[in-house]
Amino acid sequence: MSYYFDKDTNVESKEITIKAEINDKIYTFKTDNNVFSKKGLDFGTRTLLESIDIKNINGDVLDFGCGYGPIGIYIKSNTNSNVDMIDINNRALSLARKNSILNRVEVNIFESDIYSNVTKKYDFIITNPPIRVGKKILYEILIKASEHLKENGHLIFVINKDQGAKSVIRDMQKYYQVNLINKNKGFYVIDCIRQS
Description:
Blueprint lengths: L15 E7 L2 E7 L11 H9 L8 E5 L5 H9 L3 E6 L2 H13 L5 E4 L10 E6 L7 H10 L4 E12 L4 H8 L3 E9 L2 E8 L2
Parallel strand pairs: 3-4, 3-6, 4-5, 6-7
Antiparallel strand pairs: 1-2, 7-9, 8-9
């Protein structure tokens, strides 16, 4: 079984083009087999993007686990931030590059297994994390984000209550100042601020 968070995929390619309206603006995305939410923008990512106060996003931003690119492309389209986008899935990275051109944004897209190729610190790391990797790797993603955040930098992510949102909030309080930005139909958008 191949998953969208695998490095390589042998699943046959079948690219399609979708449209997504986010905060009254239309985006066009190419998606494919073996990438997350290939049929359209998933509700969790939409909730995340529509919950962020975009006016407050600036500086250096990392889209972790970018998939075909909706988070990073949305952020770059609406801010003057420097946006990096990472994923482990080569097909997702290829789609994200195509989609950055389609949506006329300049972003930096590269392969990284968790933070293995991340060399700088960010003001914001924004993600709809891959829950299916399991709790151990999920917590590695969330906790190690602090090593790649500037002082008072923000890790903003979305997680469903059925995927353990409440326990994740509790556990992240050991590492961050944690704020709940929004709740929508079971999806929690969480802001974790790195402390000095």
